[in-house]
Amino acid sequence: MGCGLSKAHIRSEVPVSHGNARTTIHGRKLIIARHRAGWRQAHIAAAMGISRKCVRTWITRYDTEGDAGLVDRSSRPRTSPRRTAAEVEDRIIELRRRERRGPAWIGAELGVPARTVSRVLVRRGQPRLAALDPMTGQVIRSSKVTAVRYERARPGELVHMDVKKLARIPDGGGWRAHGRAAGSTSRDRATRVGYDYVLLWSTTTSGWPTPRSSPTRRAPPAPASSPAPRPTSPHAASPASSG
């Protein structure tokens, strides 16, 4: 198995400062500002809680590269001689798309460790098998590396509705107040109190759910003069109002 390094397969890396970093881009600029103001490097290090070597490093980078020297640098090595060859990665992707099998099967076919196959699939942005259609191989489910999302451009174009059924509490309290030994008033059909249904509406655009409570059908209907709910946008108007 040959090994090689192809620049075409090197993805751009976004440098991210770790949570325990003492100096961010703002702290490095503060080091330069204090150095220009005449502070000694030892005093700058003591004031910022870092070593003098760290202060000297950022001052040297600024003197050499200017503001660009204060930006985070990638920790990726310049060369990776033991990286999987581009030809092997292409064969892994080809088998994945044609056979739709996992890293263990692909690794056994190519003589590559399953962990290496898994890393290649992630590096090439391949979705998980659970996100693919088992017959066609098309992406049908959303994941971190796919763009299949239930999103719409206008509010009200796609609405999700959830229903929650809540039993009403009779006058004087229910069984939690009087105990189960007292019996249930709902056994007698004439004394049934019914249920309330909480309807939760949400759109894929705004993301703001709107809960509403709806009584059972036994309740009297709303008066005919009650205003109809307004649409969330002109594009989401009902067919009756758009005619």
TrEMBL record:
UniProt lists compositionally biased (Low complexity) regions at 205-217, 233-243
Compositionally biased residues, Pro residues: 218-232
Q: Where are the transmembrane segments?
A: none
* Residue segments, region Disordered: 205-243
* Domain named Insertion element IS150 protein InsJ-like helix-turn-helix: residues: 29-78
Which InterPro entries has this protein been placed in? Homeodomain-like_sf, InsJ-like_HTH, WH-like_DNA-bd_sf
Instruction: Please identify the protein, giving its name as recorded.
Output: Leucine-zipper of insertion element IS481
